[in-house]
Design brief:
With about 110 residues, this protein is of the alpha+beta class. The protein has one domain: Arc Repressor Mutant, subunit A. It contains 5 helices and 3 strands; from the N terminus they run H-H-E-H-H-E-E-H. It has a 3-stranded antiparallel sheet with strand order 1-3-2. The longest helix is centred in the middle third of the chain and has 13 residues.
Length: about 110
């Protein structure tokens, strides 16, 4: 089970456009660094830095296939997070009845001053 601190660290480490694109591809299956060069249009050394960070935080791991490093997802939270990010939310949540904007109802808890 992940601690709250670990969950926060995972959110921080994936909060980068390149890393999200990497994770989206890995959610489809194992990929090698060379597979990402053309797709991401960035240098292999830069891609490797992103993988190093993702690996350090336990998001991905790799195995060697000859000279190739083949990466895959290991953290089960990642596919669920990616699914949430893909959703398109059309509306915001309704305001609570006690909201000053709606001027309806009263705050359900005890007011502390």
């Amino acid at each position: 089970m992940l601690s709250l601190g670990q969950k926060v660290d995972i959110l921080k480490v994936i909060a980068h456009p390149v890393r999200i694109r990497i994770l989206e591809e890995l959610a489809k299956g194992v990929k090698c660094v060379s597979d990402f060069e053309e797709f991401l249009e960035i240098r292999q050394s830069n891609i490797s830095q992103h993988f190093t960070l993702l690996r350090h935080f336990g998001v991905v791991d790799y195995y060697m296939d000859g000279r190739l490093r083949c990466y895959f997802l290991v953290n089960p939270l990642i596919p669920e997070l990616l699914e949430l990010l893909r959703k398109d939310y059309c509306e915001s949540l309704p305001r609570p009845a006690c909201c000053p904007v709606t001027k309806k109802g009263v705050y359900p808890g005890e007011r502390k001053r």
